Amino acid sequence: MNNDFELARTRDFSALINDSFQFIKLNFKPLLRGFFTFCGFFVLASAATTAVYLLQINDWMQSAQEGQYGNSLDMITKMKQFGLVAVVMFLFNVLTYSAVTVYVLVYIILYKEKGKVPPSNEEIWGYFKYYFFKVFGAVLLNGLLCGIASIFCLVPGIWLFPILALTFPVMIMENARYGYAFNQGFNLIKGNWWTTFGALFIMMLIAGISAGVISLPGTLWNQFALLLHWPGGNIAAILSALLSHLALVLYILPLVTLALCYFSLNEAKEGTGLMERINKLGEENNDNNLPAEEY
After folding, report:
1. Scanning 101, 148, 175, 285, which has the fewest C-beta atoms within 10 Å of its C-beta?
2. Where are the alpha helices (DSSP H) in 114-177?
């Protein structure tokens, strides 16, 4: 493990991108192992509900094409079932996103506190269960705020995106409530909106395109099977849901970038990382295995 990697330091746009890849390279195995340990259940549950959702769409469209809905009552019953599955799918997707967010940020803060050593599952679990529902609530609130802002105009929603994203590392790194984290997001990003937005956008774009490539075969198979009445449409729907959710592992990348953005902005405002290095330097100078001087 390269102990020269510093989390708490200021970074420009290129450093945020490069150091995100560098951190993942240094922590690839423990990060990946912990992802499936703490997020695996949510990923599989979300994939299962999405598969049921896609299967219902397939069944609905096939039945409509074959004229099986003879009366409006059948259609209303089907729509109620479809709506229920959609709500359950949405809930599990939010739970999954919350789990991935908490896991990555908890891993990073423990990595920092332990002196650049990967944390154990037991250490992660203590933080994970403490922050999970707090972050879950924050995800819902942030989504609602972005949605409301985007209704009036797309620009306010885009402007809020990096500010609201910072609420997650603030809540975990500073053990803060949502209200404080919300205000702190505005304070931290002053004068650095473009750098933060640009770094997060690029990393999310990379993760999104990569995830799309992974899930593309199943998605295309499902669409062609539905439109051209190919066999195996249900299998394709299940495969599409599974691949798209396994690809969520790629979203570790923008979350690492988000954490580095937080450390960079916090360092620029507070200089906490510099003080930590000064204190550590003093400790290292004192801990030289020499006998204490006597006067």
Report:
1. 285
2. 121-152, 154-165, 167-173
